[in-house]
Amino acid sequence: MDKLFIIALLGLLILVNGAAENLVYNRFAMLEELESFEIDDEDDVGLFDIPSWTSERGGKVLVNVDSFGAVGDGISDDTQAFVKAWGTACAVPKSVFLVPSGGRYLVNATRFKGPCADNLIIQIDGTIVAPDEPKNWDPNLARLWLDFTKLNGVLFQGNGVIDGSGSKWWASSCKKNKTNPCREAPTAFTIDSSSSVKVKGLTIKNSQQMNFVISKCASVRISEVSVSSPGDSPNTDGIHITQSTNVALQNCKIGTGDDCISIVNGSSAIKMKGIYCGPGHGISIGSLGKDNSTGIVTKVVLDTAVIRETTNGVRIKTWQGGNGYVRGIRFENVRMDNVDNPIIIDQFYCDSPKSCQNQTSAVKVSQIMYRNISGTTKSAKAMKFSCSDTVPCSTIVLSNVNLEKEDGTVETYCNSAEGFGYGIVHPSADCLTSHEKDYNFLDQTEVSQNHSLNDEAEEMVGLADSNDDRIVDHTEL
Fold first, then answer.
1. Signal sequence: where (predicted)?
2. I want to staple 282 with a disulfide (CB 3.0 to 4.6 A). Which of 53, 312, 386, 471 is the partner?
3. DSSP assignment letter at 50
4. Domain boundaries, given as residue ranges, for the chain
């Protein structure tokens, strides 16, 4: 009997060890996959070899909107001057479409269409301003103000401003006053159906609704762009990416009344680095799955960010009833400063005046990594993983996360969420379930002291505290 017991015990130990080895192997294989995804640096887009428009080399053709009758006094309608100048610049290789400094150019809703001749530069040094009266907006371009479409190998640059004059639009929004009818509103600056595009140095502010949209594009690089709208301006997403691939945002400063950055259906290979966000609703994937639609977002990296005084930090939001998936996402090296919901997955998102019905289908959320994230939260629930009961979240990975609340303790909320933590994880995420509950080989340790950020994020905090006044003060919604 004793021999039979020993043999059975040895067999059980072999099975346990095999399961443990498989668990460790599978987890580290998943970590390697999440950590390995990168987007190439900006030199993978050939247009970046275009010399500056002020350079003596390159034989550029200067197309100044003033030469086509633009007045630049902020009162006269300069739309036709811009259209005529665009027609010339688009047709001639190596052209520079110039909006000169010192002018304030009033331009109505306009589509600037390509394709254009090679090596076009759009140099915006002055201010382009939208009409401020919603009643006079062209109904045929209800969702657009400045729309650039079907371009390839184009550079937008300059120290100028795109000003949407959005205050009357915000006041008439149904989100500001529920007695107002809900209506469409324009996006200030749109680039769509384009490839190999770079945008550098521009300021976009006070958009009627979304500030800057990248739609149906491939290989886009955005750097040193500032986006600002008041914290209480409705639906003024900072940079919105849809149906686009291979997009990189770097060293951008964004403060709005909605998501600083939103990434929605059909987008993949998105890299964000050196981002300052606040005020606003944080950096979001979604929303996805509205009206039982399919939403797919894959391969997204946020690396090095400061998120300050926002309603959310890093968020994934999906509607009940949707289909598709979100997977292969990495948020890392992020400093949270007084954020309501620093880490949140919300599969019960419902941005509707009516309550949303419970539905069983959902967008699948999996392979999500949070690494080197620290700071302060306003909410006792510093991490929320609110996942579908029928389509649970899986493979949520937490590493070196330390979130504190100045006036109390913090906790993690989980519903139908599977994953694991290793290294420092505070508050504890023990509520994450595992298919291998008996084998917790990757330590999850709580700490009571603050976890320091990497040097890059600390430098960004210093930048945000500087005298740069392009981001407006936070206003509570």
1. 1-20
2. 312
3. P
4. 59-225, 259-351+359-435
Average pLDDT over residues 97-115: 98
Token pair, residue 186, equals: 């324009």
Annotated catalytic residue within 240, 281, 435, 474 = 281
Between these two residues, 97 and 58, which has the higher pLDDT value?
97
Domain 59-225 in CATH 2.160.20.10: yes
Per-residue pLDDT, 182: 85
Instruction: Please identify, in words, the CATH class of the domain defined by 259-351+359-435.
Output: mainly beta
Measured distance CA(111)–CA(359) in Å, rounded: 40
Q: In 37-97, which ranges are continuous DSSP H helix? A: 79-91
For tokens 């009833």, the residue is 321
The residue that leads in pLDDT, 144 or 353, is 144
Fold identical between 59-225 and 259-351+359-435? Answer: yes
Distance from C-alpha of 262 to C-alpha of 211, rounded to nearest angstrom: 11
Is the backbone peptide bond immediately before 244 cis, with ω within 30 degrees of 0? no
pLDDT tens for 171-193 read 999 888 888 888 889 999 999 99
Kindly give, in sequence order, each residue whose CB lies less than 8 Å from that of residue 53, ignoring residues fewer than 6 positions away. 60, 62, 96, 98, 121, 123
- The Cα–Cα gap between 172 and 182 comes to 9
451 is catalytic: no
Residues with Cβ within 8 Å of 393's Cβ and at least 6 positions away in sequence, in order, are 345, 347, 365, 366, 368, 385, 387, 416, 417, 418, 419
